[in-house]
Amino acid sequence: MKLSFAASILALAATVSAHTRVCNVFINGQDQGDGQDKYIRSPPTNNPVKDINSQAIRCNVNDRQVPQWVNARAGDEITFEWFHNYRGDSIIELSHKGPVQVWISADNGNSWTKIASEGLNNGQWAVEKLVQNRGKHSARIPSSLRAGDYLFRAEIIALHEGDVAYQNNPIRGAQFYPSCTQVRITQGGNNSPPGNTRFPGAYNYQDQGIVFNLYSKPPPTSYTAPGGSVWSG
User: Fold this and answer.
1) What residue stretch is flagged as signal peptide (predicted)?
2) Domain total for the chain?
């Protein structure tokens, strides 16, 4: 009995330590400093969102405006840095394979446009690449994007329990890690993002990119991330 209890505690600890969140960003390689609760709408914990019909699927829980903005220009590279809780600790458990995506909103999260998406490429998942890059993944801000204030929504979708939909088994289901960063585009072009996607609403439990078996035999060789195509700008 004691062994069983100890094993349960260890399993719980391993599961919790696998969680993650964005701690800071870089613009063209320049570190913008710790962004938690400053320019990132940080959740109080690093726990995932599992209910795609909840408001938390947009910017995680605790979605509210924070005091600072990161300045960038259209065409710049924005890099998000993920960690378990703070810079330098663990990033995310490698078992949490899945895609990494970036969305933008020009109206404080009421509508969204996807600008970057990585899934499974030559046998490597985007999450594996992120860990290999020490928690970093990047997106190019569309060069024609109009100047203004935007939310940048970086997202990891962990598929290790995604063989069944959360609505059918709340103990399992894909895990979503959305994070919203406030970015001010100081110089831009003439295009506004289409903004034809809503959260909640962008995803449903029939999406093959959400209900997905990582452990199929033979292993999967292709993957289509949910939420439609990337806007080139």
Assistant:
1) 1-18
2) 1
Q: What pLDDT is attached to residue 17?
A: 55
Q: How far apart are CA 21 and CA 200, in angstroms?
A: 20
Q: Which pTM value belongs to this model?
A: 0.92
* C-beta separation of 104 from 152 below 8 A: yes
pLDDT tens for residues 89-114?
999 999 999 999 999 999 999 999 99
- Within 13 Å and on the Cβ side, how many CA atoms surround 50? 18
- Residue 78, classed as helix, strand or coil, is strand
Q: Which domain holds residue 69?
A: 19-187
Q: How many residues does the chain have?
A: 233
Q: Please name which of 98, 102, 94, 95 lies closest in space to residue 22, comparing C-alpha atoms.
A: 102
Q: Is the model's pLDDT at 166 over the cut of 50?
A: yes
Whether 198 is covered by a domain: the verdict is no
Cα separation, 119 vs 101, whole angstroms: 8
User: CB count, 10 Å around CB of 141?
Assistant: 25
